[in-house]
Structure formats: C-alpha cells, structure tokens
Sequence to fold (970 residues):
Amino acid sequence: MFHLWNMQDLTPGLTGAPAPAPVSPALRRRPSKSRWRNRRLVLALMSPWIVGFAVFIAYPLVMSVYLSFTHYDLLNPPRWIGLANYKYLFGDDWHQIRSSIYNTLWIIVVGVPLQVLFSFGIAVMLTRARLGVGFFRTVFYLPALAPPVAATLGFVYLLNPATGPVNTLLKWFGIQGPLWFNDPGWAKPSLVILGVWGIGNTMVIFLAAVLDVPRHLYESADLDGAGPWQRLRYVTIPSISPVILFSVVLGVIQGLQYFTQAYVAAGVAAGEASQAGGTSTLELGYPQGSTLFYPILLYHHGFEFFQMGYASAMAVLLLVVSFVLTFIIIRNSRRWVHYGGAVR
Amino acid sequence: MTSAAVPVGSRELTRRKVPRDVRRRRFLIAVADHSILIAAALLFLLPFVFIVLTAMMTNNQALSAHLWPHPFRWHNFVDVFTQAPLWRWTLNTMIYATLATVGVVVSSVPVAYALSKLRWKGRDMVFLVVLVALMLPPQVSVVPLYVMWAKLGNAIGIQFIGTLWPLIIPAWLGDAFSIFLLRQFFLTIPEEYLDAARVDGCGEYRILATVVLRLAKPAIAAVALFSVLYTFNDFFLPLLYTSNNAHNWPVSVGLSQFRNLHQVQWNLTMAATLLVMAPVIVLFFLAQRAFVEGVTLTGVKG
Amino acid sequence: MNIFPAASRYYTQYKGKRCALPLLADSYGFYYNKKLLKAAGITKLPRTFSELSADAKKLTVRSSDGSLKVVGYDPNPTFYHGGAGISVYGTLIGATYFDKSGKSNISRDTGWAHLFKWQKSLIDYYGYDKLVRWQTGAGDEFSASHAFEVGKLAMMLDGEWRVSFIKHEHPELQYGTAPMPVDDARPNLYGSGYINGTIIGIPKTGKNHDQAWELVKWLTTNNHALTQFSNDIRNVPSTVSSSKSPELIPDKNFSTFLKIFTNPHSTTSPITPIGADHLQTLTDFAVKWYAGKTNDLTGGLQAVDRSIDSKIKQALKGGGGGVP
Fold:
C-alpha cells in the first residue's frame, strides 16, 4: 500500500547508478562522437583531483609500500630487508598487533552505529521541534567545534573516578562510579561517549538530508494514512539512505585511523595532564593496553622508536584492510540504499 | 493528519477546527520532544561548563581536582593576549581557512558531479580509488610528503617549509571527504531535472553551474562549513610545517604553546580556546539560519 | 672521563663509542613525611622492602567508606616517578636485564621475581581498584597538589628535583630524604639509587663544531658552571668533583641525592638496540600482574624475555640497530 511513495528504482549498481527510468530520446542514441565528448568532459571535471591524487596520495602510498620493505630509522637512508617486517608483523609481534586490531575493531563496531543513530535521532528531533531550534542546533553542534585535545582533556577530568563531577553525582544516588578512563573495561566505552558527544558534523549532514526530502512524498504518505513512525521508516530513511551510507563508511574509515583522542586520554588519565601527551609513563594503551589502537601502535613504532620501515608495513596492512572493508560495505549497500529520489 | 482540507478546485480554503483532544495530544508530544531535546542539550553542554570553569582558574588549581574556581581569575582572558600574539595567529588561521575552503569547493564539486551524474566506464572503481585517500594513515604519508616539499622548495627557490602552503595547495586539487559527501548528495537529485535541462539544449557545464549547484546548495554549504571548521582545528600538519616559524602559526598551534618549563598552563589554554571559539560559534549561529532556511526552500520540490 | 661516575659514562656511549656527554643528572631516592611517621610511631627508617611494607601499612589511613585517604607508599611504578617507570626499581634489586650473551635475563634474575611479588603484596593490601581510584584523585605530578606535598602520600620514591619543588610550593612540609629501601636479599645495595640524566651532544651535520665543542666542554666539566646550573634548577651536577663543590647551596635533603649519585652501586638502565622497548614490554606485563589479570609470574616473565629477544632480533635486521 505504501509503494506509491517508495523510491522507485531498485537496482542500483555498485554505487547506485540512477534507475533505468525511461530515458528521454535525446540521450538514447550515443554516437561515438558524443561518447568522446563525454569522456573529455569527465577528464576536464576530474583533472584537479587526478593531479592531487597522483602527488599527495599515490606518491606517499608508493613510498610507504617501498619503505615497508626496508629498515628506516629516519636518520640513515633506508636499508632493504625484504619481507622481514611483514614476517615480524605476522609472527613474533602478532600478539600485540592482534590486540591493537581488536581494540580498533571494537571502537568501530560499537562507536559507528551509536554515532549514526544519535546524529540521525537528534537531526529528526530538531525537525520536529518548534521552539528555539536555532539554539538547540548550536548546542548540539558546539562540541564539534572544540579542539580535540581540549575536549578530551575536559572529558578525562569530568570522568575522573575520585574527584570528577560525574562520579560525585553518582555517589549522591548511592552508586559507586566506575574508574572510567582508568579501568580497562571502561576506557573504550568512555572514548565512545566522547565520540558521541562530538557528532555535530554528522548531525548537520543528516539535518540537511532530512530537510531535503521532497515534501510531496510525505504528503502522499499522509494521504495513505501513514503515522509518524511509518513516515520515518518508509519515507525519511530510504530517502536519505545515501547519506546514511556516507556516515557509515566515513565512520568506519575514521575508526580505522582513530588516534588523537585515545592518545591524549591515555596520557592524561595516566597522570600526565601537566605534560600534555607523550607516553613517558611507558604504559602503552593505558590502562593495561585497552586503549592501544592500531594507529597508536603504528605511531609508537614509527615516531617513538624510529622504526619507520615497520610502521610503513603496518600502514600498508591498514590500507589493505580499509579498502577491503569499504568495498564490502558499499557492495552490500545495494540492498538498502536508494538513489535518485524521483516519484512518478 | 493534515489540519487543512483543501478540496481540489474549490475557491475557498475551509479550515476545519482541530478537535481539542488532537490539540492536546499534539501539545504533549511537543512537550515530550522538547524535554528530550533539553535533556540532551544539557548533557552536551556539561563538558563545556568544565572548560569555562577551568578558563577562570589559576594554573595550580587547573591541575588539581577542585572544580569550582577559587578565586575567579577573569584576568586570564587578558593574560592570553599579552602572553601571546593571538591576533596574528587568528589572521593566519583565517587565511588558511579561506583559501583552503574555496579550493576545496571549487575542485571537489566538478569531481563529485562526474562521479555521480555522468555515466562512464570505470566510474565506480575510480570512486573507490578516491576513497583510498581517506584510508591512508596520515602518520605514514607525512614523511615522504615533508621531504618532497623540502626538496621542491630548494629546487625552485621558494620555501614551503615554515608556511601553510603545503596544506593549502592540496586543497585546490580535490578533497576526498568533500567529494564523497557531494557525490552522495548529487545522487539524491532526480535525474529528471537534469534530463529536462539536457532536452532544453543545456550543455553539461551549464547544467552543473545552474541546476546542480542550486539544488545541492545545502550540501555545498555543508562542505564549506566543514572545511572552515576543519582547518580551524587542524593541528598536527600545521605543527609539522610551521613549528619553526612562529610568525606563521595558526591558532591551533599557538594554543598548544601556553606552557612554562615544566607544565602546560591549562587555565590559559582553555581561556584562549574559548576566545578563539567564540566568533566561530557566533558565525555558526548566524550562518545556520541561512543555510537551513535555504534548505527548506529547496525542499519543496516537484 | 672518570670525572663522570660510571653510570653517566655508560648512558652517553654505545658500543664503546662516545655519543654525548652528561649535563646534569637525576638520582632517585626516598622521601618521607616526618610528621606522619612520628604520628605512626615509626622511629627507624625502612631499609628493605619488607620493612617498607610494614611501615606503609602503619601509615595508611582509610575513609569511612573504605576508600583510601592517606597511602603509606605506592609501589606502582607507573605512578609519578617522573616517567622513569619500572627502571627506578632495577637498581634496588641489583637487576641484570641481559645476560652475557645479550639475551634478556629478566625471568632468570631472581631480583625481578622478588620485586614483583613484593609490589603485588602491598598493592593487594590496598586493593588494586581502590589504589587506582586514590591515584586518580592524587594531584598532578608537577603541580602544587602533588600527593606527597599535601600529605596524602606518606613516603615515596622520587628524583632529586622534588626538593626544589617542595621548597617553592610547600615550604611548610616537614620531610626528610634518605636512600631507597632495597631488596631484602641484597641489603648491601642500600645507599644506591637509579641514575639518569640530561645529555648534550653536537649533531654530525651542524656547523661550527669547534666552538660547539668549547661550549659543551665548559658546560659539562667546569665545576663552576655545573654548580650554578645545579643550584638554579636543583638537578644533580654531573661530575664527581662538582657534586662535592662548596659552591653548591647546602641542603640536607638535597645532599642525600648527591651521595646516591656517587654511590658505586647506583646504576642506570641498559642501552639496547631497541631503545626503551624492553622496559615497555616489562611494564606491559607488570601492570597486568598488579591488576591480577594473570597469576603466572614465571611464565609471564619468560614471555617478556622472549618478546624482548625477538624485538632485538628484528631491530638488528637492518644491520645495526635503531636509536640506542
């Protein structure tokens, strides 16, 4: 009964090419001249990116792959050692690598859905509210404006187990608050909370997307007697599904690179607030390795112990995993992402 | 349920009076909505309360566990200016933000368009390749790129190290995040609009410049906003390239310099952070009205 | 070169080649709160770990809800200590990190087992979670609310710079200094302490090598320069003769550290091709051991040895290790 206002189309290709809706006659025949013109157009439009990619992405990427086969301490020229870094990575060092992979995957699997959910939820709430919408929007966006280091520091102090306001408040209710950033079981959840606090950017994107849903779709739904939940499920979500995909993919990629907040939080929680970073406590991933994420381990090997060759090998592995994961997610998105927003 | 029944073809609008229980239900729902929003807003503001309080403490208290400033040092906000060239830093940040943002928008829009609204072989693979830029861990690309800029500077006689140019120039050559976002938005634009324009004889460039830009205004505004805010808080790379040239420090690098021999002075750092954030908050508050209002207008489509 | 004590000579060279010179040094010793000790009826300073534990228990005060208010001594090496971590205890147990063939020796050197068992028994007395909770409420290490300086920590192990901090931040504090208690099995080590320090060097690619050398030579060997520097920032002057110089501002508490610095048993941590990674590996195990996440001390230390050995093997693959 609701098919009238569902998105038409549903065979998006890998990237959701617009549906095979009836094509206007002007485009049906594609003589080779116009195909060449099309290609020239594409090249012209993409040219800045092509240059940028070659210089700023492809070149460092190739260098990283090269360095991963060397021993490079940043002071002397790189020395070729073949597969030794990779053998070490999957061999003797696997124990620590594996736990850093676990931590990174944990923060993705738990953090990304929560962030997407909250951003979407708040964005929808904002479209329903009548009073003070501008004020609320600013409040929810504010944390995204805070410099990451200052924000993390604020959080670690707020969640200080002995003296922080959160635990003090809990004590009034008779609950003994957990050790938050100082407890291996709570450190990652605390970081997730910090992440959800900073969803301002994603919320704005969802807001723009939700407000962009064509009104007439809602009107058709109303005519069919749909209630608010059904409107959400059958109109809003499918219409903005490309944006949901965007948030998920971006969230996963950013999760795979998660560094700053964990690095600062671990350092501050370990008692280094006055030194602002630096792992002089020699405790990696404080507490007890629970915040040792893959990029932190990479940084540690590359810039704290000057094993850039090994760090490059770790980076290559990360790149491959990122690519594969992104590919899988986008491939699977066919089933739930709708493009083209047209209704006949 | 609509509150106005508009019989097609009638010349008058008849407004049905909304029954009381429906009005009451709607009122309760509005109260519930706003309560949730208020509760969430309070939670979101809480960490800021802490930052504000720290900004008004003495340095010693900032490192202790006491949360209420005792005494209140309003003077911190003045100290920040005398201790540091905050104006110079802000100017540097504004130059960086403006140039980078314009570059990002100008270079990313065409690419996103080509990846979404034009059909060509290999398009999907290239899109994945664009995303590769987001997957490269910055720690690793940092070293080869730094060396490249240093060597380039020596070769052509312009010093790039010590300036923000190594950050501004790449912004004009496409930014993967913006391309991705814009592409997704462009994909929500119905093909019909573009086909109609093509049938009318519009060339592709004109379609891009008129139809697409207008329909995707909220997305482009979002991209510009994010670029400004990202460059505002960008720390690691500016630190790497400008650390030895204090004249070119942006605000983010400057903020991290409130320290004496043994410690970071968190009270001053927080005070400076607030001062720096204040105009941005005001800007956002004003700009969001314009950009959201722009959205709701274009939302009435079809 | 003998104007520098053995430990300082050691940490400025690698494989016999001199890389740098010591410029001011740090030595670690024992601080105790005189008022709290007197109140607890302790008249003799502890000289061994077990005496230290006994005294710490007498000095510990708990609040009504069971949480710790005053801690006698915190044996957790990742708490405070200026970031030197577990290496500060290495000297006190006469530890060897590596055997003659260069293999990691931690599981075979009984000193380490003694250390870990002692630390854990004291930590368990406090309760690990309760101790962590107390630690998070302890003031920041380089602030005026440092736990020892405000009387929340009765005894501690710290470097000589603390004397100057206390003088500036809490001159009213009645405290004393002494050498750190040592392993019960090695009482002859009493009087020594861990040594570390700042170093100064001349980069290979720098210009004006000769002038740079003149400055370095003056800074590192001229007694007058050293004592003045030492007086200013209260670090240990790095030559034997300067540490005895009459120009040093006399301070009973500070002089303890001068004695520790020149004690023949005082050592520093070994230099390895993997930098401080061996300490990192040991610490990663130690924190899990203290938290009770593992009960197998011997097995754990053997795993640490294996890990350190494989890390060294990997670092040497490039032909000559990384940064020493």
Remarks:
- Residues 20-55 of chain B form the longest helix (36 residues).
